[in-house]
Design goal:
Length: 930
């Protein structure tokens, strides 16, 4: 057994974190880690307690959290550890609530978070390379570790806190194997050791010597377990990220494909494989406020939505979902049979005979069994299991479901349990040993108890019960009514209570702490009530909810494009070199034309969507970025071209971290854009077949594909989209360092590989259809010059800040009214012309009864794309292309009077924008009197 001895301060007992191949051991006791992934930086501090309590009430014994470097050092040398960014206070709150903590401080965290957690200013440093043993990068990392390390060190288990594990980096194995990553990973590992981290170090999806490696996945538990067992046979096997849902990005469908039923099944697969820890990523997702939503691989425009709800057990507003109750049911079962699970081995199910269509696997310990039975039928069926001792049990399983069956499991005190219902409680409750079993509404189950002494009834006799001749075994044929049933028994003079619940009543049953259970409540919360004490609040009924605040009297101010001069620049600059981390930049230039007509403008370096204006009128919205081509109408003479670009988030995962944002090269007129997805030929060595990458293609293996294209006078050529490696042009390999085919997007400069006339491009077949593969060609001589730039402020736009503001004098009031009337009169015209604009209004905080716990959200019906501020706080980006429809308005950020500001890229009218309560806001709460 590996061990780490942690000394507490004088007068406190010594605490240890040990481990062996079976599990982690804390203070001498084996533990099954049931961890909720919750990020403190994705919600206001006022919401921390309720979110953590909800995790604890679901049976979670630990919290997994990233630390976001860019939250704590938003500008170089300017540290922020107060308010919502007080990560130390978050760790202290976990300790107060009795929750262990798994700390994941990075420096890289991925997390669909801007730049993977790195501060934006890092990319300004000369010669820096990220996630490498690069001197410039590691120097900055050391400074970060110095600051964050003392917060973690002082809250380790042995120092009086509850930090039990610290992660080294994050998912490095997706970029390089352990050998290639060793210099970098070892440096980080040693950095934590030097800074006094004594609890075990862990990694995920890639490892380093001296750290326990975990696995990140949604499915395939068996293969992940086997891989870890081969790599680290003497270490515990934990799921460092069990993906409870998935993130969403603009223009995609809602990420609800991981249903609650599948979620529960995958958890049983993890138990079945033999893991001794599950971290639910995410348990509560939260919100990507401000500009912190990231960008990931898969296409050029995979930008995260503002919500990070993640279809998680707790939704973005902290409300329980069906997945929450699935997690709670599994956690209760694990807790009830934890000693068995942590000592068990895989079951050889050959000795168990089952009805056709039922797959039987599970865990064993001596003669004890946990059978996890999976149905392959298309409808619910009653199957039968014949056990090793010859008994045959009925078990009801739904299609595709995995159901637990306990066979002669020692649940303590010499009592053995066999049950086709799931076990939720195995502990004294109110001084009486209590077992709680449950099954879906309307199902039957078989429950059998065997003891060393006779088992006798102490209450009413159940309808269907039978005793063995010696009285030491009692069997129950149970129906799971909606109304709970209680069976009172005694064993050798000791009381035993068996509570039988339906699935819906199990969801209304809560474990408040050791030996404290609460029944018949839709929702439960704990609120502080003095030194170490908590008051229980319960929700049992719905109330009539008052109307949410109305959003009236909007004022609008157009972004007057023709009046913005900006700062002259030789060529467009990206956000970082311009010195602006987030928000908007407006790029402007003049294009002279001898005659009226259309041109194809090539933008070789554009990393964010751009709204294009020609002579003050919107001409296009560029969504597919990296490099872009856009058809534009130009008049004879001078034309003013403007691009309004919003930083939509930096890559949160890629070998290309730190990409410049916005537009960072000039444009070129009269270019050519050629869609390359059609016209490929596949050569499998025997035949030649046409392959269309924009259609579903029947292609076996990864044959070589080839295609011709021609150039006529263009000396520059870019290939952009879902390229595949190895890539060849005219027989020469084009190097693509770090690129993997599943990234599905890259901009490749082919200028040094192409020739005038016919060119041949070759690459292996990867998949079809693919979203984009274009050749952009142009002449260097056709560049656009005379650029200027201007930053469009997001935090408090000057135009919006004065809208609707209280005037100090009569003259100012009259001027404000006149200004407002003029703007209101021109609002519809501005919107029709597609002119960007700010809109502002004020509303009063809602006045609601104390018995309600409302959640407020903003629905932006009719708007286009832009940003939201509440009382000067940046709530994030919006884009009305789905899947996000509603935007969180944190109740703790409301004031008596509140100012809402929208910046809309098309200046659309906010007349249909409104505030809403979530459905659970109508739930009424009351103190629970025990």
């Amino acid at each position: 057994m590996k061990s780490l001895s942690l000394s507490r301060s004088a007068g406190q007992r010594q605490s240890r974190v040990d481990f062996d191949r079976k599990s982690f051991v804390i203070d001498g006791e084996r533990v099954f880690l049931q961890s909720a992934s919750i990020h403190y930086f994705r919600m206001p501090r006022a919401e921390w307690r309720e979110t953590l309590v909800k995790a604890k009430l679901a049976g979670m014994n630990s919290i997994d959290t990233y630390f976001a470097w860019n939250v704590h050092e938003p500008e170089e040398g300017q540290w922020r550890f107060e308010g919502d960014a007080d990560c130390g206070a978050f760790l202290d709150l976990c300790a107060e609530l009795g929750l262990w903590v798994i700390v994941r401080p990075g420096p890289f965290i991925c997390a669909e978070w801007d730049f993977g957690g790195f501060p934006w200013w890092l990319s300004r440093k000369e010669g820096i390379r990220f996630r490498e043993a690069n001197e410039t990068f590691l120097r900055a990392v050391d400074i970060y570790f110095d600051r964050i390390g003392e917060i973690i060190r002082d809250r380790q288990l042995g120092a009086g806190g509850t930090v039990i594990l610290v992660q080294v980096e994050n998912e490095y194995g997706y970029l390089a194997d352990d050998e290639a990553s060793r210099p970098y990973m070892a440096y980080l590992r040693d950095g934590w050791l030097r800074r006094g981290i004594e609890v075990p170090l862990i990694t995920c999806a890639g490892g380093v010597e001296g750290a326990v490696e975990g696995a990140n996945f949604w499915s395939g538990a068996d293969s992940h377990f086997d891989k870890l067992a081969r790599k680290q046979p003497d270490a515990p096997k934990i799921v460092t990220e069990f993906w409870s849902g998935w993130f969403e990005h603009w223009g995609a469908p809602a990420a609800i494909q991981k249903t609650p039923e599948l979620y529960e099944k995958r958890m049983f697969e993890i138990i079945r494989a033999g893991f001794s820890g599950i971290s639910h990523y995410m348990f509560f997702g939260g919100t990507n406020f401000a500009g912190y939503g990231g960008r990931t691989v898969g296409a050029s425009d995979t930008f995260m939505v503002t919500s990070y709800g993640y279809d998680a057990p707790l939704d973005e507003y902290g409300r329980t979902t069906p997945k929450y109750f699935a997690a709670k049911r599994l956690a209760c079962l694990v807790q009830a049979i934890e000693p068995f699970l942590l000592e068990s081995e895989p079951l050889d199910a050959a000795a168990v005979r089952a009805s056709a269509g039922l797959d039987v696997r599970g865990r064993r310990l001596g003669d004890q069994r946990l059978l996890l039975v999976e149905s392959g039928k298309e409808e619910r069926e009653t199957f039968h299991l014949t056990l090793e001792d010859g008994r045959t049990l009925p078990v009801i399983v739904h299609p595709g479901e995995i159901a637990p069956v306990l066979v002669s499991v020692d649940i303590g005190g010499g009592l053995r349990l066999t049950s086709t219902a799931s076990l939720a409680c195995n502990e004294p409750v109110g001084g009486v040993r209590t077992l709680i079993v449950h099954a879906r509404d309307g199902l039957r189950s078989f429950v059998e108890l065997t003891a060393a002494a006779p088992i006798r009834l102490a209450g009413e006799r159940p309808q269907l019960a039978s005793w063995s001749p010696d009285g030491r075994t009692v069997s129950f044929d149970l129906y799971h009514f909606r109304e709970p049933q209680t069976i009172e028994l005694t064993i050798g003079g000791e009381a035993l209570r068996l509570i039988v619940l339906s699935g819906s009543e199990m969801d209304r049953t809560w474990r408040l702490g050791a030996g404290r259970w609460l029944f018949g409540c839709d929702d439960v919360d704990l609120t502080p009530a003095g030194e170490g004490e908590f008051q229980v609040a319960v929700s049992r009924a719905a109330a009539r909810l008052p109307q949410p605040p109305a959003l009236l009297d909007w004022s609008s101010a157009a972004l007057e494009l023709d009046c913005i001069g900006g700062m002259p620049v030789d060529r467009p600059r990206d956000f970082t070199s311009w010195g602006q981390p987030y928000g908007y930049l407006l790029y402007s230039c003049e294009i002279e034309r001898e005659r009226e007509g259309w041109t194809t403008l090539i933008l070789p370096r554009l990393e964010d969507p751009a709204r294009v204006f020609v002579n003050g009128t919107e001409a296009a919205l560029i969504r597919e970025v990296g490099s872009a081509a856009v058809r534009l109408p130009l008049r004879q003479g001078s034309n003013r071209l403007q691009l309004l670009v919003q930083n939509m988030g930096r890559l949160n995962f890629s070998p290309d971290l730190g990409e410049p944002k916005g537009l960072f090269d000039t444009g070129y007129v009269d270019g050519v854009a050629l869609d390359l997805r059609a016209g490929w030929k596949a050569d499998d060595g025997e035949t030649e077949a046409a392959v269309h990458l924009d259609r579903v293609a029947a292609v076996d293996g990864q044959p070589s594909l080839s295609r011709m294209f021609s150039l006529d006078g263009q000396d520059r050529a870019l290939l952009v989209g879902a390229v595949a490696v190895p890539l060849r042009v005219n027989g020469r390999i084009v190097p693509l360092e770090g690129y993997q085919n599943w990234f599905a997007h890259r901009t490749v400069d082919l200028s040094a590989y192409v020739q005038q006339g016919i060119n041949i491009i070759e690459m292996p077949y990867f998949k079809s259809p693919i979203p984009r593969l274009e050749l952009l060609a142009y002449r260097s001589a056709d560049s656009v010059g005379g650029w200027s730039m201007a930053g469009i402020g997001e935090e408090r736009p000057e135009a919006a800040a004065r809208l609707g503001a209280a005037a100090a004098t009569v003259e100012e009031a009259e001027a404000a009214r006149a200004d407002g009337a003029a703007r209101a009169a021109g609002k519809e015209a501005a919107a029709a012309a597609g002119t960007p604009a700010w809109h502002a209004c004020e509303f009063a905080a809602p006045s609601l009864p104390e018995t309600l716990r409302p959640r407020l959200k903003l629905r932006l019906t009719g708007m286009s794309k832009g940003s939201i501020w509440l009382n000067g706080i940046d709530l994030g980006r919006y884009w009305q292309i789905g899947p996000q429809e509603d935007y969180k308005i944190p109740m703790s950020w409301l004031q008596e009077r509140n100012r809402l500001v929208l910046f809309d890229e098309q200046g659309r009218s906010p007349d249909r924008v409104r505030l809403l309560y979530d459905e659970a806001s109508a739930r009424e709460w009351e103190p629970h009197l025990e």
